[in-house]
Amino acid sequence: MSSINTSDRYQLGHRQVQRLGYGAMQLAGPGVFGPAKDPAMAVRVLREAVAAGVNHIDTADFYGPHVTNQLIKHALHPYPDDLCLVTKLGARRDEKGGWIAAFSAKELTLAVEENLRHLGLDVLDIVNLRSMLDIHQPKEGSLEAPLTALAELKHRGLVRHIGLSNVTPTQIAAAQKMTPIACVQNCYNVVQRADDELIDQLAAQGMAYVPFFPLGGFTPLQSTVLDDVAQRLQATPMQVALAWLLQRSDNILLIPGTSSLSHLKENLAAADLVLPPAELLLLNGMA
Predict the structure, then answer these.
(1) Of 5, 29, 32, which is closest to residue 17 (Cα–Cα)?
(2) Main-chain dihedrals φ then ψ at residue 42, nearest 5 degrees
(3) Which residue in 156, 197, 179 sits closest to 287, CA to CA?
(4) How many CB atoms lie within 10 A of CB 114?
(5) Got the DSSP string for 86-130?
(6) What pTM does this model have?
(7) Which of 45, 123, 203, 266 is deepest in the core (most CB within 10 A)?
(8) Are strands 84-89 and 56-58 parallel, antiparallel or unpaired?
(9) DSSP-H helix ranges across 22-80
(10) Catalytic residue among 22, 63, 188, 209, which?
């Protein structure tokens, strides 16, 4: 598998990472619940991603639960020195796979301990607090209590950096008054563009923005505009969507996920796709 462009990097916590990373969510079972369909293939995908130059992997111990972290440990431990593992806290799963908020200090402490154990680490590089005030989209409300708990875990040396996920600009500003914030992870792609202004604000601060569902998530992006641009550039629509994000702003870090080697290769090739101004203009108008 060819390597990604190793010169295109951005600051994430205390590391410089490749702007095109990998999201491990799809390695768990259907609905991000239960074991991997093909554990051996999942291990191959993880190893191929790192071999191609990926040094930013996004995960969470509530994927499975525990499935993706255990696969990452099996595939990659001991980890390369430059590998940045980013995990999320704030949720847990019930026995049917439902998503439940887990915001108390006790729950967050347990989650950090479980992430450390399942990943085989002594300290977590970055922990994103995933707001569960609304499971589907950012919703205003105080995150002071869980952030206080995470700041204490950081003070204890179990976490190096804190990030935020599924949050509003107001919540980000309030969090920054409590503790340094390394990154923001919200839903964003060429069609879903609610965070346009926020991305520019974070770029001015030198803060990474990590869009989840960069290809549409559980409902993949479908658009005749994407199809037409892809045909003209001899690329796939998903490569065009990823390339648009990379050209949208330097502070955007991508974590497309897949459990397929062929899709991994396709995603990584998007780093070399340059969108001409005329095509960018068309894609910019999709919002």
Answers:
(1) 5
(2) -60, -40
(3) 197
(4) 18
(5) EEEESEEE-TTS-EEE--SHHHHHHHHHHHHHHHT-SSEEEEEEE
(6) 0.96
(7) 45
(8) parallel
(9) 39-51, 67-76
(10) 63
Amino acid at the residue 182 = A
Do the beta carbons of residue 85 and residue 72 sit within 8 Å?
yes
> Pairing mode, if any, of strands 181-185 and 159-165?
parallel
Q: What angle is formed at CA 222 by the lines to CA 218 and CA 227, rounded to 5 degrees?
A: 140
> Which two structure tokens, joined as six digits, stand for 155?
């003070």
Structure tokens at 242: 């990823």
Structure tokens at 3: 């390597």
Beta bridge pairs of residue 128: 88, 163
**Contact status, residue 270 vs residue 239, Cβ threshold 8 Å:** yes
Whether 63 sits among the annotated catalytic residues: the reply is yes
CB atoms within 10 A of CB 47: 12
Asked if 88 and 60 touch (Cβ cutoff 8 Å), the reply is yes
Q: How many CA atoms lie within 13 A of 25 on its CB side?
A: 15
Q: pLDDT truncated to tens, each residue of the chain (287 aa)?
A: 657 765 699 999 999 999 999 999 999 999 999 999 999 999 999 999 999 999 999 999 999 999 999 999 999 999 999 999 999 999 999 999 999 999 999 999 999 999 999 999 999 999 999 999 999 999 999 999 999 999 999 999 999 999 999 999 999 999 999 999 999 999 999 999 999 999 999 999 999 999 999 988 777 788 899 999 999 999 999 999 999 999 999 999 999 999 999 999 999 999 999 999 999 999 999 98
CB atoms within 10 A of CB 167: 26
